[in-house]
Amino acid sequence: MGVKAGYQGGYHNHTPAGIPMHSPPDIDNNLLAFARAQPAGEHKNAYFGMIVKKTCSGCPSGFKTYHYIIRFDGTYDDALTSFSQLDLDNFNIDYQNREFDLTNPTGVYGTTYIDSMGKITNEGLEKLFFDTLKAMNLTNKIILQRIEDNGIINNITLNPDGLHTTAIPCP
């Protein structure tokens, strides 16, 4: 997305073949970079969004779209966190392995995070995101929001059990 100075955030899409959740490079190269580029005291204005398209047999045109937005909520020093390419490569491998674990019906999670078509559910994607933040030492420094196709904006939080998420509508 190029130079971040002068911008609070950005948006992109993920291809249907990819994992429909913000990846480690999205977090570092985009959200944290936007946070670092903000004027003094405005680092919490940084955001990065993505549009996701999922197959939906009962939806118009056979798919549903929704948005995930991540917002920076740490200190400016947290925004200075930057990862090497090797770090990002390793985080990305872990991210892909976690997604596999969450969608493997014979694995530790069984079918908890997969739908009837064998695809990862929103809750699975959200768990993947929070597990990724934990691995990157960014827990509680980034807010995850999901915008439903009806326009409702939900703040997504990880429950204390670390296994399930809760969607809390914004006021």
For the structure shown, list the relevant keywords.
171 residues, alpha+beta, six-stranded mixed beta sheet
Question: Which helices and strands appear, and what pairs or packs with what?
Answer:
Blueprint: E1 9-13, H1 24-36, E2 47-55, E3 63-72, H2 76-79, H3 85-103, H4 122-135, E4 142-147, E5 153-158, E6 165-169
Parallel strand pairs: 1-2
Antiparallel strand pairs: 2-3, 3-4, 4-5, 5-6
Helix pairs in contact: 3-4
Overview of this protein structure:
The protein is of the alpha+beta class. The protein has one domain. It has helices spanning 24-36, 76-79, 85-103, 122-135; strands at 9-13, 47-55, 63-72, 142-147, 153-158, 165-169. Strands 1-2-3-4-5-6 form a six-stranded mixed beta sheet, covered by helices on one side. Strand 5 (153-158) and strand 6 form a beta hairpin. Helix 3 (85-103) runs antiparallel to helix 4. It is globular, with a radius of gyration of 16 Å. The mean pLDDT is 92.
